[in-house]
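Sharing a chain and its predicted structure for anyone who wants a worked example. Both blocks are below, sequence first, tokens second.
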Amino acid sequence: MKSSHGANLFEIQKEYGFNIDEIKDFSSNVNPLGPSPKAMTKLEKNLNKVGVYPDPNYDQLLSSIEEYTNVSRDKILLTSGSTNLISSFISLINPKNAIIFNPSYSEYERELNKINSNIISYDLDKSNDFAIDCEKLTRMIKENDVSLVILTNPNNPTGYAIENEKLKNLIKSSNCYFMIDETYVEFSDVDKYSAVKLTQSCDNLLVIRSTSKFFAAAGIRLGYGITGNKKLYDDINKHTNLWNINIFADILGGEMFTDTDYHKKVFEFINREKEKMISTLKKIDCLKVYPSKSNFVLCEILDKKMTAHDLREKLIPYALIIRDCASFNNLNEYFFRFCILDEQSNDKLLKLIENILK
């Protein structure tokens, strides 16, 4: 419940006397519909396997990911949480110079600092909706002898996503490695934005996926990576422990990746609610609402009559928690982010923000 990346729900519960299940955490970015019902049913039927070792080859799990991504298993790296793969890859590449984007997920910088990498920041321009200028990025890579570029697509917290055709040209024109974190890509048009298919022709690419957000399964700590670079695959894989994925992650993953009805339901619900919330908030004159290809929306309070922290504090008594984005590099105290939750909670948040800011 406590994380440097979000709300401490226990502290809020204690201070305001809420029950934990009363609190609506709009800072979490987790799919509110919960895990795949088919996967949960399968898990319930197999709870007695708690004393059984998983299949060390993870045949069923890999088959499901193969079907889901249309990528052969000899390109898929299984990992206990995507953060472990991020750490392993950065340590393996050991880049002297690396580019990260601001604002973005803070763990990249932390992992690069562990190996004393020289971090070169690409500050995304809010006047251009935090889009990436590919020509500028290419120049930065060449001028700074960059070994690794790390980007999240769609980006957190901005919601911007770069098309895979632009990524293809960028990756192929550069000699460095690219690590693309696609934690939120399933909330977008995967065919347009995912870099997975680029791994077939770009051997300087690792794509990382998580099951925490779209699949609402953070507790099973299941992530995976995809690369077409055989040496990179082998180098990462040989440092992976036997039975790296626990039995319940194996069972859930084997089912949820093939539950296409669930995938469609989540995608349609999130995007329908997101468009409703964006269109409503755009009517507030003092608020800038940035476009988003993910399940969250970044906003900026333009008149500076209150900070995002002030707004957050005004919402907490109603058991609603938004993310104050002042801690993100290249953002300030007037930015906040919220994710899409259930329809009733979304409507409640909209009404309160309108009342507070108008």
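Comments welcome. The CA atoms of residues 135 and 277 lie 33 Å apart.
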